[in-house]
Amino acid sequence: MFDAWKQRQRQRLENRPERTVFYNIFATMMLVLAVELLMAVASILAINVTGQLDENAKDLLTMRVRNRASYVQEILRNAEDLEQLSEQITATTQQLLKSGDISLDTLDNSSEQSDALLVALAPQLLDTLRTKQVTGIFLILNTHDLDTCEVGKKMPGIYLRDMDPDARPSERNSDLLLERASATVVKELAIGTDKGWQPAFPYQGDTKGGILRTVFQTAYKSDAGLSAESYGRWTTNSYCLAGDDRHAIAYSMPLILPDGTVYGVVGVELLTDYLQTKLPFTELDEDKAGTYFIVTTTDDALTDGVLSLRKTVTSGEDLVTADAPLGVLNCRSNGNGGNWVELNDKRYYMVLEPLQVYNRNAPFAAEKWFLAGTMEQSVLLAFSSRVREVLLTTIAITLVLSVLGSLLVSARLARPINRLYREVIDAQEKKTFPRLSRTAIREVDRFAETITELNKELVTNSTKFLRIMDMASVEIGGYELRTDTGSVFVTDNFFSLLGKPEMQGEPLSVRRFEEALKGIAYTKIVAFDGGTNAVEHCVIKDFDQKEIGSRCIDAMEQIAAGNGNKDGYSIRAAALDLAKRTERRKILMVLSDGLPSGYFSEAEAIDDVRTAVQAARRRGLLVIPIIYTARTDENVDAYRRMYEKSMIFADSVGMLGEFERLLMKLVR
After folding, report:
1. What backbone phi and psi angles, to 5 degrees, belong to 135?
2. Does pTM surpass 0.85?
3. Which end of the chain is more exposed for a tag (fewer CB within 10 A), N or C?
4. Cβ-proximal residues to 188 (8 Å cutoff; 6+ apart), any chain
């Protein structure tokens, strides 16, 4: 089995195409480079560097939005805490009702009664405006069903505005402006009026963003069954007062007497410009690519993967996000906790953090508020994209430099070997002894020195052989077989000593040399076939018979494959035939494609063949079995028991070479 494996390895090496030293070195280095690159890429993919960087960018944005949402929610919750103010207004109103100074029936029609109440309530409104972080406060008086109210009706009230609530208040309220108030109230308060000042609130009907109707009617229609704070509501759309271009959102709550009478609304205002200062979008991105939104929605959950968000306040310099159509953002979820918005063919990543502005059971609890932080995807993930580009560029540069370096290294290592090769070729062409130069590579130099010494020894031995031939008392001839070139060198007297005519032409090929030697050795070829009861021998060529044509092919007409082969009998017959010959060297070659099958059992076949082989060898015959079969590995033990030694396991290609080597070994 081991011999068969060595034979296969030898054949594989012989069949391998020749490659230059440069090619072998370069190919090996490229293979190593490919493995290293694959390991590097696999490591990057396994660690998922860019994916982690993307997640880090999203987590950082989420953290910033979450922190900002807590701050904004605190501002809104502080602004909507009007319970104490509502109680004070109701107490003052009850006192004036009890004294008869005002009447609920004429409160929203009589300017004298409403002015008296508004002047009495003004200090409380001013105190609330100063203590809260709001830009305005308002109060509107009304005691009738707004469904029957005419649009444009003037409603008494007061609207105070502080343009900079974070600044220190002035002593005489010079930093305040009146947006709505009657002339009497303006005179009593001694506060300046704004450019859009009006003495009363014109009723706008069912107008979106109104600060009166929604809150008042909800309490009025439910007979004020809940506390005033429960009816409080933030406007989901920003609004502008008539004659003014400043946008604001407002929180309104109804004014309710202990008997359930709804007599107006009170509320606070936050200008969107002021809220924008509380939403610094630069904290999302230093290059101002982020945008903050305060948005609202009535959707309970994503519908078909889309959540419709209405913009209330926008803080940012990204024109695409600021100019979203109709103030609506269609937010889509990717299923992994991330939200996305598509605007003008650009994709924005969005973080939504809820703002708890209502109690769970409040009438307007279905209106959900969120702080949204958005950033264009390409900007948010820019760092990971740059890292990806750097990695790809690094891999590409590494690949190019490695290829160039491999080319240089391969060329440098192959150069001295190529130089030796050229020196040998030059010496062969000039028919001189090669003088190999030193390469400074230990193995190569030692190999060259060994080859040089072997050549010197060969020349010395050849010279000695020629001298011996010249000095011998009898005439001696000789030949040299060159397996590398396929040629044969013979002495001048070689063929004459054999009684053969001289071969003309140079060089002498192995085939011509073989033809010339025919007849020197006597050969008999016998094919055998048969079974358990009969054996058939067919003589293809006898010892003294001259070769004419192809006798092996011609013999196919006389004998064909039968049912078996009784090798032991045929070996005994051939041994007896050889024993009659007088030559000193006698060789019996047995060519078989498998185990003998003309027996009753395999054990009988093996024993019969072994006995026949041993008998032949005792007669002084060299027995060489040549076995060519695809099942050699399975039956190798049986072959060894039959023939014991000198076996050749070979296919039709390598059989001749194996036979030649074994024959030379046996005849020495």
Report:
1. -100, -5
2. no
3. C
4. 119, 122
The parts of the chain modelled with pLDDT lower than 70 are: 1-3, 5-6, 9-10, 13-16, 110, 207-209, 301-304, 321-326, 334-337, 431, 433, 456-486, 492-500, 503-507, 510-511, 513-521, 531-533, 546-563, 594, 629-634, 650-668
The distance from CA 299 to its chain's CA centroid, rounded to whole angstroms, is: 38
pLDDT, position 667:
52
Note every long-range contact of 656-660, with CB atoms under 8 Å and residues 24 or more positions apart, other chains counting: 658/7, 658/626, 659/589, 659/624, 659/626
β strands within 219-275, DSSP E = 233-234, 248-256, 262-271
CA distance 439 to 451: 15
In 3-state terms, what secondary structure has residue 312?
strand
**Can you name the residues that pair with 178 across neighbouring β-strands?**
160, 193
Residues 6+ apart with CB under 8 A from 100: none
- Tell me the one-letter amino acid at 216: F
How far is residue 401's CA from residue 384's CA, in Å, rounded to a whole number?
A: 25
Each residue of 47-97: pLDDT tens digit? 887 888 888 888 898 899 999 999 999 999 999 999 999 999 999 999 988
Q: End-to-end CA distance of the chain, in Å? A: 27
Cβ–Cβ under 8 Å, residues 608 and 641? no
pLDDT at 505: 63
3-state secondary structure of 462: helix
How far apart CA 9 and CA 166 sit, in angstroms, is 91
Pairwise CA distance, residues 411 & 270, whole Å: 78
Joined together, the tokens standing for residue 500 give 């053969």
Around Cβ 394, how many Cβ atoms within 10 Å?
A: 11
Digit-coded pLDDT (tens) for 617-634: 888 888 888 777 655 666
CA separation for the pair 79, 85 (Å, rounded): 12
